[in-house]
# Entry
Amino acid sequence: MSCTPAGLFQSHPSLSTLLPSSSALIIPAVAHQASRLYARYQAYPEEDLAAVADDNKPKQQLLLETTLSSAAMSTTTKHNDLDDDKDMKIKKDDAVSGSTSNKFSDPRYRAVVSMASAMALHFGGYEFFRNSCLGLFTSSEHGFSSTAAFPLANACVSPFSILLLWGYGQQLDAKGPRVALRNTTLFSIFFIGTASAALWFCNTTEMPRICSQSLIGLTFLFQNSYQYLLYTQYWSFVGSVLTPDEGSRWFAFLGGFTSMVCSLFGGLVPYLLPYTGLYGLMSATCLTLALCLVTGDHAYELGERHNFDPKEQMKAKPLSKQQEQQGTNGQPTVTKESGRIRQALDLFERVPTLKALFVEVLSWQSLNTILGVSFVTALKAGIPDDLARSAYSGRFYSYVNGASAILQFLVLPTFMKFAEPKWIWRIMPLFPLTFCFLQVLQNDLSLTLVATAMFISKVTDYSVRTVVYNMVYQPLDFESRYLGKEILGVFGSRFGKSGMSLVLSGLTALGWTNLQGLGRLSFGVVAVWLYSTVSLSRLLPTKKEAQLAAEKHRNMSKKKEQ
# Structure
């Protein structure tokens, strides 16, 4: 029998079963190694080969096993080298292409886009809900005709918001942020759908007016509360996923996208009302919230799949001094046992920035309440028809969102590259301050002047304040970003609105709240807001310091996870 490689393959037909036909790379390697080993076999003395062979194995079998082993090792090494070269090439291509081309493939950015879409749809649907509620509330047939009704209803918003905040806190602690967002969205869909159907039933069956007024009042309270309940959860996720440096560059674009969608939905209101009516327009909000439910949950799904779920940061949240003192055997007392109020007080004691931000929120919402009451009062006096008044309101907020989108897309991204957030907080109140001062100089306030002051206030809020407000939370810990943000967004903002509404209700009963009086009061409150923003700005870190703080919190959560 020949001892050449061809003779070996002929003498062992079972070799073909060891080498599948699909292994095109293995067969040439086997032939190459066999040729090399056969040359060595011919050159080696008989006793050297016998020294490494088993006594019961012939030389041909030893040569065959050595050939196969060497070929397999060579092929594996070759494949590993090819894989390493491929990985290096991919990394090199990624480095050359830059970070911009990778943003759309990065799951973090896809999650942010998905959550931003949910937020935009939420605010778009809110345009339907807000304008239909305003039209029903000020309706002379079904709503409230008294001028004291609007501030009194705003005063009741705060207690109603506390109930929603309590339910959200229970969901957040028990289920985490993803389930909390899902359940609060489902509850909002159920409430709005039920309210619109009940109001339509009251209107078609001609039930007593007290029934429709009660439902309109309850719906008005929910409309002023659920907006903050949901949108703060959207921003909390985005702020947790993006770093402060990324937030300074992308928050303006995300806000601009939201304003653009709101402008589109607000512009549709005058065209939809003749076909849907106020009740159909209200129920259309359920459709947008259903889309919010899908896109928001998808964002959290990406976070869980790719290990950037904000829920993991719950494990690394710092403890208050009281919780550390109450701990036994290294285990702190469970937060639920100390109560929601105690938890909030501990949080605000631990994070002074939240205290200053709470004062800013109170003063800002007080100013918004005064301007809102002035706007509604002038609107009702100038446009008595319900549908025409709702159409005017829809166009007004469409212009507000359009102007906000222009600022967020064209001005703020460039401005934020060079300006520190603390200086923006100090400059921002100057614009509403100027137009509130113009109201003080006028003896007779028209709808146009009141709407202009309201326009400047809303544009400032939607474009500039939304960006810098959410940047405040990024260097903070998980508890501050989620629970603290909900306390300020749901309770703090509604408390400021309710408190000022109570003051306005008392002044209305005394006959002191005409448009001129509201204009003077707005100037005094905007001065307080200016003071609160300056005080807050002194506690804010620079962009570089915020980036380092955010990285520190992320590293803590990773260590806890390990």
About this structure: Confidence is low (pLDDT under 50) at residues 1-30, 43-57, 67-101, 319-338. The chain has 22 helices and no strands. Residues 244-305 form the longest helix (62 residues).
